């Protein structure tokens, strides 16, 4: 029996992931319909964490395929264990029938599983995270269509390998290039934006349950203000959590300009943004309602 929407929401929360009803509904449908889920959004909004939280809640292994430019099928799918094959050829000797040797060395025991094949051949349900799929080439994206359509993989030497148990598939994209319509049609889609202040506070309380309420509110107010600035790389949720942890590690009693300036490297990761946030700008973000200083 599949968990309902509220059970899904509570399950993600048990892993420290705060999901609204819309996201919980999409995850619920991905589980119920056994369809891949494509999650898009800016860097740092929690896309990858969905897969991690799902794996923890379901008690499943997480198999991660990190995409990048130039990723090829063999790196993602399988490779042959060439050293083991060569050893077997030497052991057989010159008298062995070449056809028999070839059939032997291209058997399943000589296959090195990479993430996609590992997920397909798993006896138990796993969570397959295809992270930053937009960084892979269009040719690789086209190859994924077979996997996501039929949950099967073709290995020329072995034939078609069908999934023993369908994995839960989460694809993430930062929007560095446009994904094909064919890939999108095979997935349930969800867009994650930066959280509002109340949601970000809830995330902090979930991930850092011992955080001081005043510290959490001050940091969330600062981060929300920073995202309204024209920064090259606005801080994501991960940076918010890191920043609070840094402040607590410093033993700071309050979130003031001096503390923020000292720990700014945990929150801002771009040199131009770092340079633009001088002490006066930080002070104004911490006290947005304060009157500007007299000239």
Which terms would index this structure?
295 residues, alpha/beta, Rossmann fold, five-stranded parallel beta sheet, 9 strands
Task: Give a description of the structure.
There is one protein chain. This protein has helices at 5-13, 21-33, 47-58, 73-76, 82-92, 98-105, 115-121, 138-150, 181-185, 197-207, 213-228, 237-250, 257-262, 271-276, 279-286; strands at residues 37-41, 62-66, 78-80, 111-113, 127-131, 152-155, 159-162, 168-173, 188-192. The chain has 295 residues and is of the alpha/beta class. It folds into three domains: 5-74 and 114-192, P-loop containing nucleotide triphosphate hydrolases (Rossmann fold), CATH 3.40.50.300; 78-111, no CATH class; 197-286. The chain has a five-stranded parallel β-sheet with strand order 2-5-8-1-9, sandwiched between helices. A hairpin with a 3-residue loop joins strand 6 and strand 7. Helix 10 (197-207) crosses helix 11. The chain is elongated and about 85 Å long. The model has no long low-confidence stretch (mean pLDDT 89).
Please describe the topology of this protein:
Elements: H1 5-13, H2 21-33, E1 37-41, H3 47-58, E2 62-66, H4 73-76, E3 78-80, H5 82-92, H6 98-105, E4 111-113, H7 115-121, E5 127-131, H8 138-150, E6 152-155, E7 159-162, E8 168-173, H9 181-185, E9 188-192, H10 197-207, H11 213-228, H12 237-250, H13 257-262, H14 271-276, H15 279-286
Parallel strand pairs: 1-8, 1-9, 2-5, 5-8
Antiparallel strand pairs: 3-4, 6-7
């Amino acid at each position: 029996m599949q968990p309902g929407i509220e059970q899904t929401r509570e399950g993600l929360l048990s892993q420290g992931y705060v999901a609204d009803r819309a996201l919980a509904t999409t995850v619920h449908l991905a589980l119920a319909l056994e369809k891949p889920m494509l999650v898009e959004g800016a860097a740092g909004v929690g896309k990858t964490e969905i897969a991690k939280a799902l794996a923890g809640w379901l008690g499943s292994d997480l198999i991660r395929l990190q995409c990048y430019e130039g990723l090829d099928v063999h790196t993602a799918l399988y490779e042959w264990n060439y050293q083991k094959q060569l050893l077997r050829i030497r052991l057989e000797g010159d008298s062995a029938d070449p056809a028999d040797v070839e059939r032997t060395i291209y058997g399943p025991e000589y296959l090195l599983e990479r993430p996609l094949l590992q997920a397909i051949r798993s006896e138990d349900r796993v969570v397959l995270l295809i992270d930053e799929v937009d960084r892979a080439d269009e040719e690789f994206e086209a190859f994924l269509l077979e996997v996501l359509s039929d949950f099967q993989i073709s290995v020329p030497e072995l034939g078609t390998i069908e999934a023993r148990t369908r994995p839960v598939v989460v694809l993430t994209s930062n929007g560095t290039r446009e994904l094909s319509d064919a890939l999108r049609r095979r997935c349930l889609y969800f867009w994650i934006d930066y959280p509002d202040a109340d949601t970000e506070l809830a995330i902090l309380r979930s991930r850092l349950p011992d955080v001081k309420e005043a510290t959490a509110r001050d940091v969330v107010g600062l981060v929300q203000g920073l995202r309204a600035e024209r920064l090259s790389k606005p801080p994501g949720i991960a940076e918010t959590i890191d920043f609070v942890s840094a402040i607590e590690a410093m033993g700071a009693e309050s979130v003031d300009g001096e503390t923020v300036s000292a720990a700014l490297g945990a929150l801002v990761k771009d040199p131009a943004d770092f340079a633009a946030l001088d002490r006066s700008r930080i002070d104004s973000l911490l006290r947005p309602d304060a009157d500007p200083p007299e000239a």
